[in-house]
Amino acid sequence: MKQGSAVVVFSGGQDSTTCLFWALERFEKVYAVTFAYGQRHDKEIEVAREIAHDVGVEHTVLDMSLLNQLAPNALTRDDIEVSEGEDGELPSTFVPGRNLLFLSFASIFGEQRGAYHIVTGVCETDYSGYPDCRDGFVKSLNVTLNLSMDDTFVLHTPLMWLDKAETWRLADDLGQLKYVRERTLTCYHGVIGAGCGECPACQLRRQGLETYLTSKDRDA
């Protein structure tokens, strides 16, 4: 039986869309919140809006453009090359404080609507070196949010211990493999679905899908 209300931090990508479908299976009322923080592609926001419309979820876009002023990075600037971290350095796509701010604002948004379940697609298994995707960070922030607002929030991370192949499996278990595969935007270059096939996000997505489909065929 579905109970309570939830806010999904929603980008229109594979992970957050899978989390949106996950939330729709569990909560009576679901809100989707997308943050405009100066992404290279406005298409990300358009895709999020279209998906929310498709599934009948109330969708809100919040302006976080200040984040780009504070922390220029490859996700917001064309003059910064997309690269993976080397020798212990963080990837150029890391946005300092992004998940801290997004989850905090999503909680404020939820508090105003009586939605105390906050759902995010962060993942420690394939977290690309981002420190704000780790389980310890999420648990710490959950405590901080409850103390700061004197409420009882629950931060849900359905993908925390799943690799990309297992994330595809979850989408399939939810009956949404085809939709997630064709309609979501993960690509750093703004190509919907399979993407450009070259950027780190597309490579991780493709490898996970191939691994899952191979295992699915083997188990059939």
UniProtKB/TrEMBL annotation:
Keyword presence, Chloroplast: no
Catalytic reaction list: 7-carboxy-7-carbaguanine + NH4(+) + 2 ATP = 7-cyano-7-carbaguanine + 2 AMP + 2 diphosphate + 2 H(+)
EC primary class: ligase
GO MF, one annotated term: zinc ion binding
Entry binding sites for ATP: F10, S11, G12, G13, Q14, D15, S16, T17, T18, C19, L20
Keywords: ATP-binding, Ligase, Metal-binding, Nucleotide-binding, Queuosine biosynthesis, Zinc
Cofactor note (record): Binds 1 zinc ion per subunit.
Superkingdom in the source lineage: Bacteria
Function: Catalyzes the ATP-dependent conversion of 7-carboxy-7-deazaguanine (CDG) to 7-cyano-7-deazaguanine (preQ(0)).
HAMAP family: QueC (MF_01633)
Record family assignment: Belongs to the QueC family.
Protein name in UniProt: 7-cyano-7-deazaguanine synthase
UniProt source species: Natribacillus halophilus
Taxonomic lineage of the native organism: Bacteria, Bacillati, Bacillota, Bacilli, Bacillales
Gene that produces this protein: queC
